[in-house]
Specification:
211 residues, mainly alpha, Arc Repressor Mutant, subunit A, Tetracycline Repressor, domain 2, 2 domains, 72% helix
């Protein structure tokens, strides 16, 4: 039988403290989502979030360094959930070019509906958008999205070796942003963009790569 009296002082409280911290962070993040749903991401303030969760503003800062820190965590959660759904859609296709096209369309269509994942696809000039880029968050998420398919394409000789991944992330990210904005503006629908991507992206992926 375990001798509780011999356990180090404070050892039993650590899991409870950790659980309490995790619970508080989850409640704050859930409150932030509700505020964003009402006010939009730009107009949501830390005061709004603190009031929604029933804490003082200083108490919220115990768990998140600032507003951008909180929103980045929320963005990443939404983005990863969206990428999981995108991968399921892409996995229905066997050809690399088809996987990429369907991935672009899925992410663009999903992100235009979700203000949180939109910041991953289209970081704007706000401090949040800049930090998404400078912190490497945007690059990490693009890698998580594309690397499984890029790795498989290289292994299957569908893509030349040595092409800088950063170039792929930038090019495909810009294509996704273009499609998302076009869908929002009503320039074209998914069917038309699928046709456009097949006409221009497929040859680019299949053709030789200039040194």
């Amino acid at each position: 039988m375990c001798n509780i009296g011999s356990m180090p002082r404070g050892a039993r409280s650590q899991p409870a403290e950790s659980s309490s911290t995790d619970d508080a962070r989850e409640r704050i993040l859930a409150a932030a989502e509700r505020c964003i749903g009402r006010h939009g991401i730009r107009k949501t303030t830390m005061d709004d979030i603190a009031s929604e969760v029933g804490l003082s503003r200083p108490s919220v800062y115990r768990y998140f360094a600032d507003r951008d820190d909180l929103l980045i965590e929320l963005n990443v959660r939404h983005a990863r959930a969206m990428l999981n759904r995108a991968h399921k859609s892409m996995s229905r296709h066997s050809k690399f070019a088809d996987q990429i096209i369907e991935g672009i369309l899925f992410v663009a269509d999903d992100a235009r509906r979700d203000p949180l994942t939109r910041y991953v696809i289209d970081p704007d000039g706000t401090s949040l958008g800049r930090r998404m880029i400078t912190s490497g968050t945007t690059g990490i998420l693009r890698a998580e999205f594309l690397d499984p398919y890029l790795d498989a394409a290289v292994a299957n000789n569908e893509l030349p070796r040595g092409v800088p991944r950063a170039d792929f992330y930038l090019w495909l990210g810009d294509l996704t942003k273009m499609v998302m904005r076009g869908l929002e503006d009503g320039v074209a629908d998914l069917k038309r963009y699928r046709s456009i991507l097949r006409r221009f992206v497929v040859p680019a992926l299949a053709g030789p790569v200039a040194p």
